[in-house]
From TrEMBL, chains A, B:
Molecular functions per Gene Ontology: heme binding; molybdenum ion binding; molybdopterin cofactor binding; sulfite oxidase activity
Taxonomic path: Bacteria, Bacillati, Actinomycetota, Actinomycetes, Micrococcales
Keyword line: Metal-binding, Molybdenum, Oxidoreductase
Domain Oxidoreductase molybdopterin-binding: 64-235
Gene3D superfamilies: 2.60.40.650, Oxidoreductase, molybdopterin-binding domain
Cofactor(s) demanded: Mo-molybdopterin
UniProt keyword Metal-binding, yes or no: yes
Protein name, per record: Sulfite oxidase
Key word Nucleus present: no
Protein species of origin: Arthrobacter cavernae
C-alpha cells in the first residue's frame, strides 16, 4: 500500500454528500468531467453481443483511479485480520491450486446511467458496460478455510492496489462481502481471462470474481483480504454503490445484477447518430440476456410496442448470459425496437425509468430506432 | 461487399456539407451522439504511456461503422483494377510471406478534438487516441509489384469490410494512397498485434499499416486493394479527413502525424475530476513523444509556464514513440504542468489552439493541473 494511504487517509462525509461527485444528478448538459470518464472507461460495442465470449479488448472496463503497474514477480496476496493463521501467497502459489475456467458475465452497476433524467454525475454509461469473459482461477473458499476464520469474523475486506480520491475520501479501492457470500463456491481468485493472463486493465495479476454481482464486487489488482469483526465502512462499500432517492443514506446496497437484455443493433449504422438502416424483409434480431437473481426465463422483443417472444438459448454458464433471437419481418418505414427479459425471480425489465440518486442498476429496456427501406 | 453497397451507393454532397455530422463545430454542450461515440471508441488511459508497447485492450480504437464479424477461413484479399495480374490471397498465403514485426505508434487524426473551441462534432476525443503496438505482417510493395501495376495507375484504393452511412454517403470505409506512398518499404499488411492475431476491433484478420500516418490510413478489415488511374473520391478520402476553415473544401488532406508529446499524469487522481494530487519533493515526470514528420529532437516540460528540457530516450522503433523523463522538485501549492515536443522538421507543439473545422491534428500541448501537498 502506498505512502499516501498511511499519511493521508481521511474522510469528509459532509463534502461527499454535498458534492455532485458522489453521484448527484444534473439536468444540464454533459460535463467535461463525464466526458473524460467516458473516454477512460470502455464500453462494449453492442455488435460484440454476437459473441458468446467477449474478446478481451472489447469487455467493458471501469477503473475508479489509475490502472496500477504491478510486477507479478514481487506481488503477493496477504490474508489476515480475524484469522488463526495469516497467509501470504505468491502468484505461483495461487496458480498451483486447483484451477477452474468458467464464463461469467460482468456488468457495471452504473450501466444505463446516462439515460436517466435527471442524470446522476459519474461515468456516463450508455448501455455497453457489460461483457462475458472466460475466467480462470481458483475458488476462494478453501483458501479462506485454510486461514482459520475467527468465529466472530463477519466480513472479508478485499483491497485493491488502485488508490485515489473519491467524494472527498482518499482510499484504495476496497469492498467487503459477508463471510457467507465470500464462501460461496463460485467466488474465485482469477488470474486468467480468455486463455491469457489478466490484462492490466482487468486487474493483473489477480482479481476477485464474484459471479452474479455487479462488477464493483470483483475487486481488481487484489492486494489483501482481511477478515473483520464489524461491518466495513470504506467509501466504495458504505457511500458509493447504494440505491438512494437523494443525497442522504443509507439506502439499500447494490449487490446482484438486475435482469437485462440487449440486442445487436440490426442493419447498418450512421456514423454520427448510430441510427440504423435495415432492408425490408426477414431480419434476424439477436442479443443476450442475463440476471444475477436467477435464470432467464423469457425474452420478448417489442416492435412498435407489440411484444413477441424470442427464442432463448441455454446460458453460456451458470453465471453467464443467454443468447436469444427472433426473426422480424421488417416493413418499410420508421420502427422502434425494444427487448426485455424476465428472470426466475419474477423480475421483468421496465420500459420507463426507475430513477435513483447514484444512477445504479438502471435496467430499463433498450430502445433501438430503425429505418426500414 | 454487402448487398447494401450494390443497391444503395449514393452521395449527397449538399447534405454532407450542411450537416454537423460531417464535422461542423458547436459551442453548445456535448451531445448524446458524441457521448455514444465516446463510449464506443476507446481512448488509451494516459497512465499506459509508461509502457513501450501498449497492451492490446488499452490501444485506442476508432471504428466508423460496426466492427465486422469475419471468418478467416473464407476471407480473402483481392488485388485488382489497373494491374496486369489480379491476385486473390488467403490469410495463409499472406502469412507464408516474409514476416516483419515492428513497433509502430498510431494516433487518431481527431485526437484532442474535444478541447477545441468551438468543438467540431464527431468523436469527442480528449487526449488518449493513441497507442503503440508491436505489429506483425508482411511488406505490401512486393505484393503490389507481383500484381504488375499498370503504368497509368496513380493510386491504390484500400477498402475495408466495415460499411455504413456518414455525412449522407453510404459506403464501405475506404482510403487511398498514391503509388509512391503505398510502395514505401514500411507499409505493411498486418495480421498480428502484440504477438497475437489481430483482435476483431483492430481489423481481424488483416489490416493495412501505414507507419507515420494518422490512423485512418491504416484501413482495417481489409477486403480489397484496387489500382486506379484517377484520384479516389470516396467520402473518407475526399470529404472527411481534411484541414478546413469552414464547411467548403477542398482544404489540405490529413496525412502524417503531427508532433505530439504526452505525460503520465503524476500522483493520484480524483475519480470524478481526474485532478491530480502529488506529494511535495522530487517527482519523476515521464511520458512519450512522437511525430510522423521526423525524429523527436527535443521534449520540454513547462512548470507554471517555465520550460525545461526533458531527458529523451531513443525511439522504440523508426515509427514509434520515444520515452522522456524529467525530475520535478514539487513545491506545495497549485501547479500547471505541460509538455511539448519538437521534431526534426522543426515543428513544435503550440500552447494555444490552431482550430480547424473537422477538428483534425490538434496537437496543442497537454495541460495537467496538479495540487502539491
Amino acid at each position: 500500500m502506498s505512502r499516501y494511504q498511511l499519511k493521508h487517509r481521511h474522510r469528509s462525509t459532509a463534502a461527499t454528500q454535498a458534492s455532485p461527485h458522489a453521484g448527484g444528478p444534473s439536468s444540464g448538459p454533459l460535463t467535461s468531467e463525464e466526458l473524460q470518464l467516458a473516454g477512460r472507461n470502455h464500453s462494449m460495442p453492442l455488435e460484440a453481443l454476437r459473441e458468446d465470449i467477449t474478446p478481451a479488448g472489447l469487455h467493458y472496463i471501469l477503473t475508479h483511479f489509475d490502472i496500477p503497474h504491478i510486477d507479478a514477480e514481487t506481488w503477493s496476496l496477504r490474508i489476515g485480520g480475524a484469522v488463526s493463521r495469516e497467509i501470504e501467497l505468491s502468484l505461483d502459489d495461487i496458480m498451483a491450486r486447483p484451477a477452474v475456467t468458467t464464463p461469467v458475465t460482468l456488468e457495471c452497476a452504473g450501466n444505463g446511467r446516462s439515460l436517466l433524467k435527471p442524470r446522476p454525475l459519474s461515468t456516463p454509461w450508455v448501455l455497453g458496460a457489460v461483457g462475458t469473459a472466460s475466467w480462470t482461477g481458483t475458488p476462494l473458499a478453501p483458501i479462506l478455510a485454510s486461514s482459520g476464520l475467527a468465529d466472530d469474523a463477519v466480513e472479508l475486506v478485499f483491497t485493491g492496489a488502485d488508490y485515489g480520491i473519491q467524494g472527498g475520501t482518499e482510499e484504495p479501492f476496497a469492498r467487503s462481502l459477508t463471510v457467507a457470500e465470500a464462501m460461496r463456491p463460485e467466488v474465485m481468485l482469477v488470474y486468467g481471462m480468455n486463455g491469457s493472463p489478466l490484462p492490466p486493465q482487468h486487474g493483473f495479476p489477480l482479481r476477485l470474481l464474484v459471479p452474479g454481482w455487479y462488477g464493483m464486487a470483483s475487486v481488481k489488482w487484489l492486494a489483501s483480504i482481511e477478515a473483520v469483526t464489524g461491518r466495513f465502512e470504506g467509501f466504495q462499500q458504505a457511500v458509493a454503490y447504494h440505491y438512494l432517492q437523494g443525497p442522504e443514506g443509507p439506502g439499500l446496497p447494490v449487490t446482484r445484477i438486475r435482469v437485462r437484455s440487449l440486442m445487436v443493433p440490426p442493419g447498418i449504422p450512421d456514423f454520427f447518430t448510430r441510427k440504423r438502416v435495415v432492408e425490408a424483409g426477414p431480419v434476424m434480431l439477436r442479443g443476450r440476456a442475463w440476471s444475477g437473481h436467477g435464470e432467464i426465463e423469457r425474452v420478448e422483443v417489442g416492435i412498435d410496442g407489440e411484444w413477441m417472444p424470442a427464442n432463448l438459448d441455454p446460458p453460456a454458464g451458470d453465471f453467464a448470459w443467454s443468447g436469444w433471437s427472433m426473426v422480424w419481418l421488417a416493413t418499410p418505414g420508421e420502427h422502434e425496437l425494444r427487448c426485455r427479459a424476465m428472470d426466475s425471480s419474477g423480475a421483468l425489465q421496465q420500459t420507463t425509468q426507475v430513477w435513483n440518486y447514484q444512477g445504479m442498476g438502471n435496467n430499463m429496456a433498450q430502445l433501438v430506432h430503425v429505418t426500414v427501406r
